[in-house]
Amino acid sequence: FPGILMAYNDDKQDGQKLVLPYNVSSTEFLMYENDKFSKSRGVGIWIDDALELAPLDYWRFNLIYNRPEKADTSFLWSEFDNNIKILNDVIGNFIHRSLTFIIKQFNGKIPKKLEFDDIDKDFLSKISSIGKDVGETLENFELRKALRDVVKFAREGNVYLNDKAPWHLIKQNKDAAGQVFNICAQAVYALAILLGPFTPGTSERILNYLNVRRDLNELGWNSISTESLVVDHKIKKPEPLFQKLETNELQDKLNQIRGIKKEKIEEKEMITYED
């Protein structure tokens, strides 16, 4: 191998040399309920079984959120339950509240902006920087941190909504309430792009609700800004992005799936050495 590299570099007339790996992504081990994965012992969940239990994006989110980047981690059903709550109560809640309010109070059109107060400016600053920050983190192969930063951003969106309380503000000043949801709509767009590397199916659904008719792969971090969605842009009525799952029921279903597969294996006719 070293000889091949030397020959490759010596053969280059333009002086360009082979670019060697400069940052190699690796992980530690993933366990299952603090035990090693073992198909023979029935320890773990396999992808075909997993997809019968929950949608793909739920598994993608959970595995990346707890990715063993610097130390061994373990898949725990209790953590899976907590991560489903994050999807529903943090990400899904912010997006659904924001878009539903725009549909009901502003005829589905992005409202106009007025003058910003300090709370507005603080959240707008986070919208402006989040794409670059998450992108750089991913470039360093820190997938776990990047996803947790996206979740943190969604939490900040919920805090912003609660601090501004536009459901009260609209009773005195509809335009002021509209500005809040203009800003929230920009944050929802940001989340659609930010979630792309982690939960692409969810990202595409968000873009559809936002009526953004561009392929997710065409939209990069640079498309995230405080002006991603223009005033009067028409959005669609959203459906809840996620659903709550009972992990006890999932475990029972997993045991049923394994039982059925075991029965099928036992039913197979075995061939003897004499045959």
UniProtKB/TrEMBL annotation:
Keywords: Aminoacyl-tRNA synthetase, ATP-binding, Ligase, Nucleotide-binding, Protein biosynthesis
Protein's UniProt keywords contain Ribonucleoprotein: no
GO molecular function per UniProt: ATP binding; methionine-tRNA ligase activity
Residue span(s) of domain Methionyl/Leucyl tRNA synthetase: 2-98
Gene Ontology biological process terms in this record: methionyl-tRNA aminoacylation
GO cellular component: aminoacyl-tRNA synthetase multienzyme complex; cytosol
Chain coiled-coil ranges: none
Methionyl-tRNA synthetase anticodon-binding domain mapped to chain residues: 111-260
Entry-linked CDD domains: Anticodon_Ia_Met
Protein name according to UniProt: Methionine--tRNA ligase
